[in-house]
Design goal:
single chain; 131 residues; mainly alpha; two-stranded antiparallel sheet; 56% helix; 6% strand
Length: 131
Amino acid sequence: GGLMQHTKEVMTIAEMNADLLLMNEYDKTNLVAACALHDLFKVNEYNFEDGMISSNDEFYKQQISHTLAMYSKVIEQNWKVAQLIGLHHGKVEWDALKEAKETDELLIHYADMLSSRGGLTTVKSLDYYDN
C-alpha cells in the first residue's frame, strides 16, 4: 500500500513544522527519526498471500501492537525516539502509551494524523526534501 509514502509524508510534515517552531537540531533529528520508524512494524500485522491481505494473528500473540513492538526495539538505542514512537497516536484511547503533551510529541502525532486522514496532503505537493 502507501506505507512508504505515508512515512515520508509524516517525516516531511513534522520536519517542516519543527523548522517553523525553530526546534533545535538534536530534537528535530530525534523527531524525524521517530517519524521514519513509527509504522515500520505495521507490515508485521498483516499477511500478504495470493494478492489478499489478512490480519497476522501470530504477530498479535507475540506483540501488543506495531507501536509497542517498535518502541521495545528502539528504547535501548534512543529513549527519546522510542518515546515519540510510543506517543505518535496522541491519546491513550488511540493506543498511545500516554497522552502526547510536549511539542515534539504533538508534532509526530499531528503529522501522522494529517497524513493518514484521507490524503489531506501529498509528498509531491510538499517538495520539502527536494530543496
